[in-house]
Amino acid sequence: LVCEDMLSALSTLDRARSLLAKSETTRLCVRSMISSAVAYGSLGLRWAARAQLITAAHLALARAHESVEEGLVFEGFLATKQLAWTELRLGRVAPFIAWNGAARALLVVARPLLTDDASKLEEELVMQEDVLGCLLLNATASSVLEMRSTLEPLLRASDLVRATAALFYAVDDQESLKEY
Prior knowledge:
Elements: H1 3-20, H2 26-42, H3 46-63, H4 73-90, H5 93-110, H6 119-138, H7 141-157, H8 161-170, H9 174-179
Helix pairs in contact: 1-2, 2-3, 2-4, 3-4, 4-5, 4-6, 5-6, 6-8, 7-8
């Protein structure tokens, strides 16, 4: 879509979200927020996209406690998955790790509700990890080395094996790479 179409879509989604802000239409409201975030992201407005996604995730996950079937676990998954992508685009590694981990956990909970195979969704989460690895490999060795002491335990605790390997490779730590 061209910029004018995106702005028109955002205006329409904003009106729809206002009308859907009721407890019985929460699912549709969350989905409209996610759609708005995608539109904001397409316009290069990543922080606006992030704000929409945080609100969508909060709204969905606030209702997830009701029950898995009636709650909004899958919508929470969609919002957190998109948040992880947005954090990668913003270059924010620690928030990416948090949102990617939340998306992985929510996918486990949402899996019984899915009519389609969840493997495509799992592959997308792995792809996010691969993109993080690419970001680490493209950063200067000195900047990666500077954040290694903080980043390595986070990556290990989050079971992001590929990104951890990319970290070792980026700082030319062949010994850790072999052991890993």
